[in-house]
Amino acid sequence: MKTITRQIAIITFLLNSVSLAESGLTDDSTGQFSNAHPSYSTAAIGFGATVAVVHFTRYVPLWDRYKTSFFTKENSLYASNYDKALHFYGGVVSTDIIASGLRLQGYEKEEAVLFGAAASTLFYTYIEIEDAHINYLGFDGIDLTASVLGAGYPVLQHYVPFFNSFTPKFSYQSSGINTTMAKQYSPQFLSDHEGQTYWMGVTVADLLPASYQASYPRWLGVAAGFSMRNLGQNTRQEYFVTLDVDLRAIDTKSEFLNTVLRTLNYIHFPMPGIKFANGKPQFGIYF
To answer: What's the pTM?
Structure first.
């Protein structure tokens, strides 16, 4: 249940980044953005709106039955720690979306990514503080650590470009398990851990010798994935190796559309590959 808020975060941050982008459009309808350097007030308003949405949709409905005083709880048994992958992934995506919105507004890349990481870290700290007042959740330092590490990953990519060749990705197929609470906002696909698969996309072209890079299609990569099924009762691990599409390789000539493709690149789309489960390889199309 705890990670329900990650969906709210991603959606709201995405909407905020689109709003930032639209406010920077020029009048020539070229699809390009001005280099005007706005104040941080717009980003602060977006951050405040995100906090308000999470507070009223996630926590207020729980207060009547579950509100308590601040307490800590590090639950290493919940979802067999599989939820930590979601914390890391959420940190990565939120930092990159915030940074992308600021870049569209004219901020330098370094400034944008550092602000994005700081805002993402602040947001997930706020989430843990809210959780600390719900009697079945609590402030979980391990969850926060995973979120902060994720928030810092785009910073690592900025300073060590080699890591741009490795992109965390996510996919989901419903397990059919109801994971929502009464009267609560219910983004099922991020609270249904058994339906989730986490991937690391690899940009193969970056890793080839220079003499081969020009002839290899940059958009074609590979991805390694893992998932967990039957959590809590005979938990089964599944591993995947598939082809992958790097949407960042598509240049639309529009800064805004390229940013959208960059954001969508955090999703793993159905591709042919191999699944390893129960000690047996299975060929198929995996999402």
So the answer is: 0.81
